[in-house]
Amino acid sequence: MRRSDRLMALAAAWIFAPGCSRAPSFDILGSFFPAWMVCLALGLLITVTGRWLLLRLRIPVALPVLTYPCLAALCTFLLWLAFFR
């Protein structure tokens, strides 16, 4: 292995290693769950509540096949950003 290859590998390890320092997790009934899974569950719950509210107020949704998954992703990512960044 050439010296420049070793230096590149060392630089890559030095850059990407801090991402492994902390993995947020929650203790739920004795089992640890990753934070993204908790955010996903809450995002889905918020989406279901939003769908119920839209149906209750009789607001039509143009493309529900695209709207609800995008709303779930939006809620999940916003929860992640609000609590873990």
Question: Which features would summarize this protein structure in a list?
Answer:
67% helix, two-stranded antiparallel sheet, mainly alpha, 85 residues, 3 helices, 2 strands, single chain
Q: Which parts are unreliable, with pLDDT below 50 for 5 consecutive residues or more? A: none
How many structurally independent domains?
1
Largest sheet: spatial strand order: 1-2
Form type: elongated
Query: Total strand count, please?
Result: 2
User: Structural class per helix/strand content?
Assistant: mainly alpha
Per DSSP, the total helix count is: 3
SSE layout:
Elements: H1 3-16, E1 25-28, E2 31-34, H2 35-56, H3 64-84
Antiparallel strand pairs: 1-2
Helix pairs in contact: 2-3
3D structure, described in words:
With about 80 residues, the protein is mainly alpha-helical. The chain has one domain (about 25-85). The chain is about 65% helix and about 10% strand. It has a two-stranded antiparallel ribbon. It is elongated, with a radius of gyration of 20 Å.
Summarize the structure.
This protein has 85 residues and is mostly helical. Helix content is 67%, strand content 9%. A two-stranded antiparallel ribbon has the order 1-2.
